[in-house]
Specification:
Elements lengths: L17 H16 L3 H5 L21 H14 L14 H6 L25 H18 L6
Helix pairs in contact: 3-5
Length: 145
């Protein structure tokens, strides 16, 4: 064939600048192409198309994280697993541009998210609802009479 099309994606981590990651990727390809006689004469063309989302993060010590974690322990009797999340999420807009502390939390197993035949156990849904309700009450300073 006279052409070859390779598609992929690049994910950035909090603290990395998307434009710098793209620049470094293109520079790496150019440097590599110089090691091959054919690629030196036919350098790869790189185009970035489609969606691009900047990363965002919140400290595990942020009060909203500790509040949610405390209510999680209260309802489920165990410590939550606090991790980063790969993939796109709208939380980045709230954190980066809205100065709003935000976490991703919900019922079910992450392996089931956005999968074919996605489902959530009703018990997980009830527990998550309790955790969120208690978190909201706590966050807003509600004290029962």
């Amino acid at each position: 064939p006279d052409t070859c099309l390779l598609k992929g994606s690049i994910a950035t981590l909090p603290g990395e600048e998307t434009l710098e990651v793209k620049r470094a990727f293109v520079e790496y390809l150019r440097t590599f192409a110089m090691t091959d006689s054919w690629l030196r004469e036919h350098p790869p063309e790189v185009r970035f198309v489609g969606y691009c989302g900047d990363p965002a993060e919140i400290s595990p010590d942020h009060p909203i994280v500790t509040t949610l974690s405390n209510r999680f322990r209260e309802v489920l009797g165990k410590d939550p697993q606090i991790t980063g999340r790969q993939g796109a999420a709208d939380t980045r807009y709230l954190i980066k541009y809205g100065d709003t502390p935000t976490v991703i939390f919900g019922p079910g197993m992450t392996e089931q998210m956005h999968a074919n035949n996605e489902w959530v156990d009703i018990r997980d849904l009830i527990s998550a609802t309790k955790i969120l309700a208690l978190t909201i009450l706590d966050w807003c300073g509600y004290e029962s009479p």
